[in-house]
Amino acid sequence: MSEKEPKTGKEFVELAAKSGKAKVKRVSGSHYIVEFADGNSIPVPVHANKQLGKGLLHKIKKAFKAVGILLLVLLVLWLKSLGFPLP
Fold it and tell me: Considering the entire predicted model, what is its pTM?
């Protein structure tokens, strides 16, 4: 994701918005529902700057990697459709 991993839900939501790979879809109480470019979404707790758990951080990293791979594949397919010679 970044050199600086988010420690709190608030930091993650800010990082997701800056990256362009995810956006806040809606807010339900103290949870932000973050939607990734591939359509998957996860609830991110924003509780008084409490740290995110290891499991949720792992799930977030996997989602960011999946979106990155999907975008790369779509870019390659688009370039091929335009006639760019690719190895």
Answer: 0.56
* Residue 46 lies in domain: 9-81
Q: What is the pLDDT of residues 21-70, one digit of tens each?
A: 788 899 988 888 888 887 888 888 888 778 878 887 777 777 777 777 76
On the 0-12 / 13-18 / 19+ scale of CB atoms within 10 A, 45 is middle
The CATH number that applies at residue 44 is 3.30.920.30
**How many structural domains is the chain composed of?**
1
Angle at 70 between CA 65 and CA 75, to 5 degrees: 125
**Four-CA torsion 53, 1, 41, 80, nearest 10 degrees:** -160
> Burial of 68 by CB count in 10 Å (0-12 exposed, 13-18 middle, 19+ buried)?
middle
Cα distance between residue 34 and residue 16, in whole Å: 8
